Amino acid sequence: MTKNSAILLSAIVFISTFTSCQKGLDEPTASVSDIAGRWKFISLEAQTNNTQQVSEGGSVLKTVTSSAYTTENNSGYITIDGTKMTSNNISYSINAISKSFIYQDGTLTDTVSLPVQFTAPASSASATYQRIGADSISFQTGSVFMEGATQSTRAGGARIKMEHDRLYLMQSVTESTTDTDQGAISSQTVQGKMVITLQRQ
């Protein structure tokens, strides 16, 4: 496998497994009074960006891959109490297009668009959380939706908004890694922003 194809494949794999807000994702403005209860999973709207770079022998290869999607065939429920969120049989599918820009020493050499099709099998999980003021929560061990995006044991947070009978959880994740192998230095920065929509039952 060539260096170009290897770095591109890794980027696509990330997008396919992201289950993981910036301008462009509409955010309701109503405040949250009480999020406890049983909620139906309505959708997950995500924007992802994966930048990979390999430096070797004075040459730099960089690939920037991005995708935006709203999940389909959504099912499952989330139960929220005062300290814990528990998901039950959450499932969804992704049908989107990823776009990659490949640069060699700063010059754009190729642009690739590929379909991203992924079905998340039904799964259940739980995560403890803590309220931070009226519009935010923090997860001590990762949220029930961040499995597969980054290390699920990492702490994180979400902004929360409520509009009528719908609850919106807005999360973002950034993770960077660097590795050296036989003189080649590779780095990767993964960014994801998502809005999870739930409906009170």
Give the CA-CA distance, first to last residue.
50 Å
Total helical elements: 1
The run of helices and strands is HEEEEEEEEE
The whole-number mean of residue pLDDT values reads: 80
Largest sheet: 9 strands, antiparallel
How many domain modules? 1
- Kindly state the percentage of residues in helix: under 10%
Describe this structure in words.
The structure is a single chain. Strands 1, 2, 3, 4, 5, 6, 7, 8 and 9 form a 9-stranded antiparallel beta sheet that branches. The chain is elongated and about 55 Å long. It is mainly β and 201 residues long. The model is unreliable at 1-25 and 146-153 (pLDDT under 50). It is built from 1 helix and 9 strands, in the order αβββββββββ. The chain has one domain (3-200). 28% of the residues are buried.
